[in-house]
Design a protein that fits this description.
The protein has 83 residues and is mostly beta strands. The protein has no helices and 6 strands. It has a single domain (6-82), classed as Roll (SH3 type barrels). The protein starts with 10 loop residues before the first strand and ends with a strand.
């Protein structure tokens, strides 16, 4: 079982898999997402804000770890979580 328990039962829509050229324009503010960092650590949260060009996204962790800013060039992968 994974750290997030129900992860295996959820369906994910990957926004972009190319770390160096990510395009997060399809992600909307308020969407639930899974964030996979370059270190392979991942967490769930919701998009709180993003820049107009979608190159910077702020995600609030659903586990209470606060808000994190990610840029499209950080090696971060963001996938929306579909219910």
């Amino acid at each position: 079982m994974t750290r997030f328990g129900a992860r295996a039962r959820r369906k994910y829509r990957v926004v972009d898999v190319q770390y160096s050229t990510q395009d997060w324009s399809a992600i909307r503010v308020g969407e639930s997402v899974e964030v996979q960092l370059a270190t392979r650590f991942s967490y769930h949260g919701s998009v709180e804000a993003k820049t107009a060009d979608s190159k910077i996204v702020w995600v609030v962790s659903s586990s209470g770890q606060g808000r994190a800013m990610h840029t499209h060039a950080d090696g971060v992968r963001i996938a929306t979580v579909e219910a």
